[in-house]
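Sanity check

After download, print the first record. It should look like this:
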Amino acid sequence: MHPVLFKIGDSFTIYSYGFFIVIGAVIGIIYVSWQTRKKYQLPFDSVNTLFLVLLLAAIVGGKAFLFFEKPGYYIDNFSALFTGRGFVFYGSLLFCIPTMLYFFKKFKLPTWPMLDIMAITTCIVHFFGRIGCFMAGCCHGIEWHGPLAVIFTDEKCLAPLDTPLHPTQLYSAGMILIILILLILIKKFQSFEGQLFLSYLILYAGGRSIIEIFRGDISRGFVIDGILSNSQFISIIVITTTLYFYIRAYKRRSS
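Expected structure tokens:
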């Protein structure tokens, strides 16, 4: 679509992907600050620290999983790993979870209630991130000539040009928005602490597995070529592990 939002001269460029990530992060910081100040009197500086630490964890995790998608290529072209193009969301998420747990313990914050807050925050940031993906053309879909197909024409886009494609970035954004709405509804009738976070993991992993069917960026890698992608394999692990904790927490609440 429009990977470059605008330019000032030849030296200052605002990229759409980064712009939307920043918008999501700002709204996320506001939400976390509001929730934690109201419930736990967490200073705004500590919220900023949390987001900076999570940003670092997301970058490291996203790049680490990217490396393992094509280890042979990145061993020979290690600098390509740091071009700024390419992150694996699951890598970022799975690195951020232990980082959050450490932060909550350090600041003596209740783990499960904080994870519930971060589930909604993750949806907010990720929604804007997927809009940024759409603008940049990354995470694009397979060729499709249906009524919702999109065509990328900007040569700076990462998607194939002049080819109708499934708008998988918008599918993801729509899915994340639906998950966000469901989490807000669940929050009103919440049965146990951690329910929002565990529900988020199950809903996202399930939806992501379906959207993967329409993804066309095959460089993300497959466990079984053309059948089971890396992300679908991770989704299976996430769903089964999270269901175990969800059922255990629900039974504990009922007993």
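If your output differs, re-run the checksum step. Summary of this record's structure: The two ends are 53 Å apart (CA to CA).
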